Structure to design on (107 residues):
């Protein structure tokens, strides 16, 4: 079963600084970022199936759209996603948000 947690996804909306930092990055999203789910099967993504909710990046709307529309070579895309996810979850942890919602998964 794929991990689902709406409260975890909602944390992305509390972040204003994009954690993805892809080519079209706005850098700052005054209305909050969006949770951009992984596009990799290792994270539960499949045809018609979104990756697990704990496999997302807090992304500005431009980066989210770019990530979903432009497939980079796998050897570039997976490390870029993993680094952005790490920044996202470290920010959540430093802000105290993960313990507040009871998330006990990996960062």
């Amino acid at each position: 079963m794929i991990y689902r947690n709406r409260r975890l996804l909602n944390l992305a909306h509390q972040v204003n600084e994009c954690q993805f930092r892809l080519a079209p990055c706005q850098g700052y999203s005054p209305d909050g970022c969006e949770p951009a789910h992984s596009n990799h099967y290792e994270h539960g993504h499949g045809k018609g199936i979104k990756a697990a909710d704990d496999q997302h990046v807090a992304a500005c709307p431009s980066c989210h759209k770019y990530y979903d529309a432009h497939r980079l070579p796998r050897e570039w895309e997976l490390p870029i996603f993993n680094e952005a996810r790490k920044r996202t979850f470290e920010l959540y942890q430093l802000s105290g948000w993960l313990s507040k919602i009871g998330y006990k998964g990996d960062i």
Observations:
- Residues 34 and 59 are 5 Å apart (CA to CA).
- Strands lie at 34-37, 56-59.
- The longest strand covers residues 34-37.
